[in-house]
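Record 1 of the preview.
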Amino acid sequence: MTISLNPGHVSFGDLEAIYRQGGAFQLDQSAYARVAESAATLADRIKGGDAIYGVNTGFGKLASIRISDDKLAALQKNLVRSHCAGVGDPLPANVVHLVMALKCISLGRGASGVRPELIHLIQDMAKAGILPVIPAKGSVGASGDLAPLAHMAASLIGEGDVLYRGERMPSGKALQAEGIAPIDLQAKEGLALLNGTQVSTALALAGLFGAWRLAVSSLTTAALSIDAAMGSSAPFSDEIHQLRGHRGQIDSARRLRELLQGSEIRESHMSGDERVQDPYCLRCAPQVIGACLDQFRQVGATLQIEANAATDNPLVLSNGEIVSGGNFHAEPVALAADQTAIAISEIGSIAQRRIAMLVDPALSFGLPAFLAPDPGLKSGLMIAEVTSAALMSENKSLSNPRSVDSTPTSANQEDHVSMACHAARRLLEMNANLAGILGIEAMCGAQGIELRAPLKTSERLTSVISTIRQHCAALDDDRMVSADIQALARLVHDSGALSEVNGGVSSIGLMA
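->
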């Protein structure tokens, strides 16, 4: 199915579908009239002899140098080639696919002065599965994601490498195989491709999509830990959370109540446990995870605006003026990425404390040390907890803000930059770490609940444990658990099985 995109009004759901499912996308036909009009306006201004930045002048510090009309096309091709300076591993294919869609949306606002055929080419390449190889590193997030977007632009003119049918090859070869002609860039088109925040935004969106799924999954793993520890469900009473009023906290408490409803273990706590209060990692799970959900919703609103924005320079305004501005500065994306990173770190931090509690016989209310069937002879999940601590610590370091680390570039012409690209890129690594932590919590929580037999957990958590056991057997004897951790990390990160619990559990929407 081809996803139709109306620039300025593209939904969050469509963006996630493009990222997760790939496939074809195309601009709504109504957008092309605006695109053609801005291209015509630009052509008229060039004929009139106006000096327009990046169109008939040099770039950055070289903006005062005027370029003759017969060299305007060469100027754009030189721009693309000279800016292909990225390094590092290629961006993931699904991120690149989203970058291409975001670039079409931005150009489709009709303020970039490009021809409709440039947009058509990007769409045709995406539909054919021709994805530019974009090195991950090289952008400082101002004047656009210049280096990574240059590598995308190079593929449109038949240069650089692409990924096609599972193979890395020269762009020209892949285009030829699909019968697609590379484009000869006209005035401003190279600049319009390079200017913009599309790589930073795609990475931030990818990080957010993963973080949201993991946050909701963490409510499921938290419920496992709460029941395994014979925790109280009283702190999840709706009125407590309504009295505070934060949406994420209310949603989280409701989800925990639903997951725990009907648990014999919980009922046993109510009748015979002398504890007055549980540790914060159990009792305050709605407050912590809920605050992170609210943070993600705020980030989502920012990134949806950015995804629909015209972010190149100069822009062709509705009154016919062509004005140099600074929409390419990715500060909104950088701050959003930093907020996301902090929330990812916090979700992992409180989850790790629940893991530590479950393996500690002084805190786990009757569970054997390290959840081992025969502690001492067997070490159980002792080192799995250590691994969770290592992953938590990495995420704490990675959560330090990137947006505050500006440095001047381009001979001090571009003297304040956002660092949005690597602020967003590290979210993918952080999500992988968080998935490992939650995978370990799932392992510990399931093991702890099973050790409570003959008491039974709720029907919903019984179903969750059944899913876990399809990927990780119960720990009856010491064994190598690395593969189990990785399998459960994939379960929470890729499949979303623990965020999409069946059986009447309320859904929690990111942008609903």
